[in-house]
Amino acid sequence: MFSEAFEDLLKGQCPPAAVRAIDAGCHHEALWSVILESGFLELMAPEDAGGAGADLADALPLFMALGAHAVPLPVGQAIALRTLLPAGEAVPQGLPTFAPSLVSARDTTWVAPRVPYGMLAGPVLAEQGGTLWLLDAHDAQRRHCRLHGEPTADLRWESDIEQVGKRLGDAGGTPGRLAAWAAALHAALLTGAITRCFELTLQYGNDRIQFGRSIGKFQAVQHQLAVMAEHVAAARIATAAAFRVGTTQPALLPAAIAKARSSEAAALVAATAHGLHGAIGVTEEYDLQLYTRRLHSWRLAHGSEQYWHGIVGEALMNSSTSAAEFVREL
After folding, report:
1. What is the rounded distance in angstroms from the CA atom of residue 6 to the CA atom of residue 83?
2. How distant, in Å, are the alpha carbons of 71, 79, 121, 256 from that of 242?
3. What's the rounded Cα separation, in Å, for the pair 150 and 165?
4. Are 238 and 257 in contact (CB under 8 A)?
5. What residue segments make up the domains of the chain, in order of their start?
6. Which sign, positive or negative, has the C-alpha torsion 270, 231, 101, 77?
7. For residues 251 and 76, what is the distance between their CA atoms, to the nearest angstrom?
8. Which listed residue, of 3, 147, 255, 265, carries a Cα 20 to 30 Å from 51's Cα?
9. What is the average per-residue pLDDT within 263-291?
10. Bridge-partner residues for 154, per DSSP?
11. Phi and psi, residue 223, nearest 5°
């Protein structure tokens, strides 16, 4: 029920033309206002706070829909934010984003590298040493990361964190809680986008005629499509495992596996999609580039597959169980 209504909203309010306009620097306030007023941002908020009290499994189709429609605003972060704020804490105004890798450059300088939507965001939920902080990006120096069409930025606060941020307490008793959310969220976004890329490529293979028949009839093309389908399926399974029924907080290891697997699939799917589309795939007029650009951006967000493979590998090495038992437990 939630997902169908959300899909209808995105189809009507966030078509490719709207995505292109926001990517080009046009105002995003109209789209954000519609999404805000729709009530979907309160999906996972507790019922006593006016939300729907949905769990991760309920929310997963919405996060994947954001990727499938290349939504150029941090809607997923806004939904997840409601589950991370302490009880009674007011939801901050503006476009939110996450910075789970806040580090101290000097005694009074704090840096959050490669923050998704850092050029647009207002409130920044950050974690440092197991403590959650609510910062304001307007107080930071923003340095664009030069990803084409993507507002990713390095944020730098030249003040003591106590002066520029609000301490929200420890990370719900679970250090790495924000990192787990960031990984799971981007795994869902990636999975939605690679699914859309596969659909576009499959349709193009059926429509494009060469030597008297559609190119999708050629065995070499069918082989590449089959490999794409395998990676899409693997990413969807790994991501679903991180969004468990009855919980509102992703666990770190399933989220790490989901982010690693979806990031790995993103690189192959983007390359294969462009290879099978030929020159048309990179043109501004064709929708494929809206998704593949985001695949590369979201793949790097909060760490590529190499980083998350390291997290999983370290957990395995510190485990007393066998590798097979370790996987079964996850």
Report:
1. 19
2. 22, 16, 26, 9
3. 26
4. yes
5. 177-329
6. positive
7. 17
8. 255
9. 94
10. 143
11. -65, -45
- State the SS3 of 268-300: HHHHHHHHHHHHHHHCCCCCHHHHHHHHHHHHH
pLDDT digits (tens, 9 = 90+) for 192-247: 999 999 999 999 988 887 888 888 788 999 999 999 999 999 999 999 999 999 99
pLDDT for res 209: 78
Sequence-distant (6+) residues with CB within 8 A of 286 are 277, 280
Query: How many Å is the maximal CA-CA distance in the chain?
Result: 69
Give the DSSP H/E element, type plus range, for residue 31: helix 29-38
Residue among 56, 129, 46, 58 nearest 91 (CA): 46
The token duo for 130 is 């197991």
Looking at residue 321, what is its pLDDT? Answer: 87
- Prediction pTM value: 0.95
Nearest 5°: the CA angle 299, 295, 291 is 165
DSSP 207-237: H-EETTEEGGGSHHHHHHHHHHHHHHHHHHH
Structure tokens, 140: 């930071």
Render 118-138 in DSSP notation, one character per residue.
TTT-SEEEEEETTEEEEEEGG
Task: Give the 3-state secondary structure of 253-264.
Answer: HHHHHHHHHHHH
- Summarize the chain as % helix, strand, coil (round to 5): 55, 15, 30
CA distance 112 to 156: 6
Separation CA 318–CA 330 (nearest Å): 14
> Which DSSP string do the residues of 52-74 spell out, in sequence order?
----HHHHHHHHHHHHHTT--S-
- Residue 156 tokens, joined: 């730098």
